[in-house]
Design goal:
With 167 residues, this protein is α+β, with helices and mostly antiparallel strands. The protein folds into two domains: 10-95, Elongation Factor Tu (Ef-tu), domain 3, CATH 2.40.30.100; 105-166. The chain is built from six helices and seven strands; from the N terminus they run E-E-E-H-E-E-E-H-E-H-H-H-H. The chain has a seven-stranded antiparallel beta sheet with strand order 1-7-4-5-6-3-2, sandwiched between helices. Helix 5 (125-137) packs antiparallel against helix 6 (141-166). It starts with 9 loop residues before the first strand and ends with a helix.
């Protein structure tokens, strides 16, 4: 297997929207085996996705073991497309380059003020992209500020984890 998927690869497939957590509003679509094989990795894969004719959104294909991936479909996307668990959907995916990261100015300002810019940029790409997506998806300014603080806390927890390992 290759070490990482090739940015820019495009895929499309039909899949069934599955309820992934009983009692919770969490749905996902299984990625066909042929696509997982083509990606060449069992790790998470950052993509730009579309469900039916939705607006494109960033998300990671998440591994579930056995060389399989799923793609989580947020409630807002399901609402936009009028879909629910059990519905067939058309998925369109474009593999993104994890190293091509755009950092929001407000996040960089906070990281700089607490002296953690380099530590944030040293986070694994998957964790960085997850935190950046959460910040970008915030609908309200107060939610965005809260998520920026959560990103700072994530960096602090990681630093503490590695500090404790050394001692």
């Amino acid at each position: 297997m290759r070490k990482s998927p090739i940015a820019g690869q495009n895929y499309s497939f039909k899949g069934k929207l599955e309820n992934w957590a009983e009692g919770m509003d969490y749905c996902a679509v299984p990625v066909p085996e042929r696509i997982t094989k083509s990606l060449g990795t069992k790790s998470a894969v950052l993509v730009l996705a579309q469900v039916n004719s939705s607006k494109p959104f960033k998300v990671s294909l998440f591994p579930v073991g056995g060389g399989k991936h799923y793609i989580r479909i947020k409630a807002s996307v399901r609402q936009e497309t009028g879909t629910k668990a059990g519905d067939q959907v058309v998925m369109r995916l474009t593999v993104l380059d994890r190293s091509d990261v755009t950092y929001p100015k407000d996040l960089l300002a906070v990281l700089k003020s607490v002296g953690m810019t380099q530590e944030f940029k040293a986070l694994p790409p998957g964790e960085q992209n997850f935190l950046l997506r959460r910040i970008d998806e915030a609908a309200k300014p107060e939610t965005r500020k809260k998520r920026i603080q959560e990103a700072v806390q994530a960096v602090r927890r990681r630093q503490e984890k590695f500090t404790n390992r050394k001692n």
